[in-house]
Specification:
69% of the residues lie in helices and 2% in strands. It has 350 residues and is an all-alpha fold. The chain has one domain. Strand 1 and strand 2 form a beta hairpin. Helix 3 runs antiparallel to helix 4 and helix 3 runs antiparallel to helix 6. It starts with 29 loop residues before the first helix and ends with a strand.
Length: 350
């Protein structure tokens, strides 16, 4: 896993893209406000669940799984909100469609990168299993093979992943396109944009933490106005996570992920013991370390499997939402832009 070279680099090359919607203009009814407040209350509850009781829970695979699950739920809530607002796609402003499609394709790219890294880490599990198998013998030759497998694991885990290395630029592009479209005449549109704002903040935060955990090279700080009811909870969560990331980056650890660090600690402890095993006392010590490595390896494998399922689930949520929007646009013969985020030439879809 690459070392942090630019851990403090900002993801805001274009300034803060999260600008609060203007309070002026169309008045939002009490009924619409009630819908919005319920949505934001759910968002805040998820942020609270992500706030760990101990900093040791941060950057664990279980925390990352919970964070990805929160993204799935929040993006599904947006779909539900659109239904509650009775705001069909053909009534959407063209700019909203552009923003949604632009963001969704970047999120799909991030999911692909994260899945690629999780697959790479899972592949390292085979090397650990091979090492554990050889450590079950008392043969010096088998110990040598175990050391070779452990060396291979460390080299494999420490190697770079080109797809993960591109996450920083994808997030930069994502942030550059997150300017909230101004809504002048639609109260329902204002509610939708404010709800989407909250989900965007959560999404960028979680994805930036994943990028930091996998690459050791990026993190970000989002400034959210206190006008949002969930802002204090988000700020507390972000400060806690970012501080722990900073501490781990500066400590020189092999990895910032808890489960990987646990395996690495057992591997480091094994090496000197394997070299000098000559009596029953040393054999007993070796057996204990091997057992601990086995437990750490199993926990890592299970954590990777669960997180992979959540990332795949989020990919499907984004993909189905995108497909549903495009299907609605086709059935309504709505004008959208070809080459999202670039060429502004329009195309009729029918």
């Amino acid at each position: 896993m690459s070392r942090a070279q630019d851990a403090n680099r900002s993801f805001f090359p274009f300034g803060n893209p999260f600008r609060m919607m203007s309070p002026k203009g169309t008045k939002i009814s009490s009924q619409l406000l009630s819908v919005l407040h319920a949505f934001e209350a759910n968002l805040e509850e998820r942020l609270k669940k992500l706030t760990p009781k101990s900093k040791d829970e941060i950057l664990s695979l279980s925390w990352m799984t919970l964070a990805m699950r929160a993204l799935c739920e929040s993006h599904n809530d947006i779909k539900t909100l659109i239904t509650e607002l009775e705001l069909p796609v053909h009534d959407w402003d063209e700019k909203w469609i552009d923003v949604y499609l632009d963001i969704s394709v970047k999120l799909l790219d991030l999911c692909i990168a994260f899945s690629s890294e999780l697959s790479r880490l899972s592949h390292g599990h085979l090397l650990l299993q091979c090492a554990l198998h050889n450590l079950g013998s008392s043969s010096t030759k088998q110990y040598d093979r175990a050391c070779s497998s452990l060396d291979g694991w460390k080299q494999h885990i420490g190697s770079g992943n080109p797809r993960i290395e591109k996450c920083g630029s994808i997030l930069d592009d994502l942030l550059g396109s997150l300017d909230l479209p101004k809504v002048k005449k639609s109260a329902k549109g204002k509610v939708l944009m404010q709800a989407m704002y909250g989900v965007k903040v959560l999404t960028v935060f979680v994805c930036s933490v994943f990028a930091a955990a996998f690459s050791g090279s990026t993190k970000t700080k989002l400034d959210v106005s206190e006008i949002y009811s969930w802002a204090p909870t988000f700020k507390g969560l972000q400060d806690l996570v970012n501080e722990e990331i900073r501490v781990r980056f500066s400590s020189g650890r092999f990895t910032v992920l808890n489960e990987l660090e646990s395996v690495d600690s057992s591997v480091k402890e094994l090496y000197p013991v394997i070299q000098v095993v000559v009596d029953s006392v040393q054999m007993e010590s070796l057996a204990k370390i091997v057992a601990e490595l086995g437990r750490s390896t199993e926990k890592l494998s299970q954590g990777l499997d669960l997180l992979t399922k959540e990332v795949d689930g989020f990919f499907q949520v984004v993909l189905t939402g995108r497909d549903a929007l495009l299907s609605s646009l086709r059935s309504g013969a709505t004008v959208i832009h070809n080459n999202i985020g670039g060429n502004r030439d329009a195309q009729i879809l029918s």
